[in-house]
Amino acid sequence: MEINGIAHVMLTVSRFEKCRDFYRDMLALLGMKPVIDMDGYLYCVGGRTAFGIQQAGEEFADERFVQNRVGLHHVCFRARSREDVDELYEFVKERGVAIVHPPEEGAWAPGYYSVLFEDPDGIRLEINHVPGKGLLGKS
After folding, report:
1. Cβ pair 52, 34 in contact under 8 A
2. Strand 41-46 vs strand 33-38: parallel, antiparallel, or unpaired?
3. Model pLDDT for residues 30-61, shown as the tens digit of each residue
4. Distant-in-sequence, close-in-space partners of 53: CB < 8 Å, separation ≥ 6
5. Is 113 in contact with 104 (CB distance < 8 Å)?
């Protein structure tokens, strides 16, 4: 068996309105379209995947993401070019979100190029570009 990608990723956020505005704009830039956009829930589809956010329960309204807690570490979107990574970097700079590192090359795979930043809840997001077959191209 070989999977056909990841069907969807759902995040639970405490600052839903700020996150919805951020994700609606960012996901549109990535070519994703909202198919559900209602109070407490946003779900977008495109690029052979789906991505959504939902409002956290009231008892968690003051919490923020902690990267090293058990659970999600970060989400990485795959770009088709280095220029796409640069374009998303400009998008996050304009919105004043926390940028962990600007576009840079990394040792994760040959030609790995990425930017790492945080959403309004502090959830770490990355977009990368790896040319060719990446690690699968190695013998």
Report:
1. no
2. antiparallel
3. 999 999 999 999 999 999 999 999 999 999 98
4. 10, 11, 12, 13, 16, 19, 20, 23, 41, 42
5. yes
pTM above 0.85, yes or no: yes
Is the model's pLDDT at 139 over the cut of 70? Answer: no
Maximum separation of any 2 CA atoms in the chain, in Å:
51
Domains in the chain, CATH or no CATH each: 8-137 (3.10.180.10)
Contact 134, 109 (CB under 8 A): yes
> Rounded to the nearest 10 degrees, how much is the dihedral formed by the CA atoms of 57, 63, 15, 52?
-70
Q: Which residue spans within 1-55 are E strands per DSSP?
A: 8-13, 33-38, 41-46, 49-55
Would you mind telling me the total number of residues written for the chain in this entry?
139
Sequence-distant (6+) residues with CB within 8 A of 80 are 129
Strand order in the sheet with 75-78: 75-78, 124-129, 113-118, 99-105
